[in-house]
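Researcher: Here's a chain I'd like modeled. Treat it as a single chain, no partners, no ligands.
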Amino acid sequence: MAHMPGEKTSPRLFVVLPCFNEEEVLPETSSRLKDVMKDLISRSLISGESRILFVNDGSTDGTWSLIKKLHEDDPLFQGLCLSRNSGHQNALTAGIFAAARICDITISMDADLQDDIGVIEKMVGKYKEGADVVYGVRSDRNTDTFFKRTTAECFYRFMDRMGAGTVYNHADCRLMSARALEALMQFGEVNLFLRGLVPLVGFPSAVVTYERHERFAGKSKYPLSKMLHFAAEGITSLSVRPIRMITGLGFGIFFVSIIVLIYSLVRYFTGHTIPGWTTTVLSVWAIGGLIMISLGIIGEYTGKIYLETKRRPRFIVSDYLGDEGDDPLLTDRHGVTI
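Model: Modeled as a single isolated chain. Structure tokens:
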């Protein structure tokens, strides 16, 4: 059972790790995490009822079989299986929401060992000092390629300028207390972007830094195309600034068009241009391109409205492996069904 609010001694911790086709890395991940958890438990930094929760996001390899085997061998490991691939953000949400009612704190991490598991103790320490949310922030990007480092830095700066309000160099490695998770559950969006939603929860927060390692095994699940899609999801889910930019752009173009119109008329009456040439170029290329971009942005928001009004579940849980008496079932509005 979870401790009473405000009790910081030996909190029950759930480490939540979304998994999609991670059979190559799971044995090493589980071994390292087990050592860390056992050490923290032995020093009474966390409760002996703390657990490691793997969320199987519709994997097509042997990921779920490995999770079941880990659970059978040691109750420290638990598993949550989604009925299909719902995406990283939904899988992560399924895990932390399932754990929210039966733990004091959750720490979310990637299953590929890129997040430094040594940060767990630091996060628990910050929680005991009073933080309800602790962000894991990369201290540097020396392990990234030049292209990856450049695009990632541009991503965070662009998200900030678009009003998404993310924490710079923070992905999804974070600690959240039970009351912070309860608050997060009140956000009813179907289109999830946790990096932007969590700061909106409020409550005292802290930051711990760590060095992100290279992936231990397997392939990255976030190529450039997915990163671009992820950025678009975040911006349109959290900010209307692009729409306002279109409005400002429209006024700007209208102002410039008046100047160009006067210039074109002067050039026309002085005989220095071919009749119709200026207006054709402006209307076909410049204005046409801006209209297409504007329609695309508006279309993104319209699509978001369309998906939100359907109120489809974010994810559906097909199986749960946990301790007897623990109940991860949530209300339907949180998108969990078993």
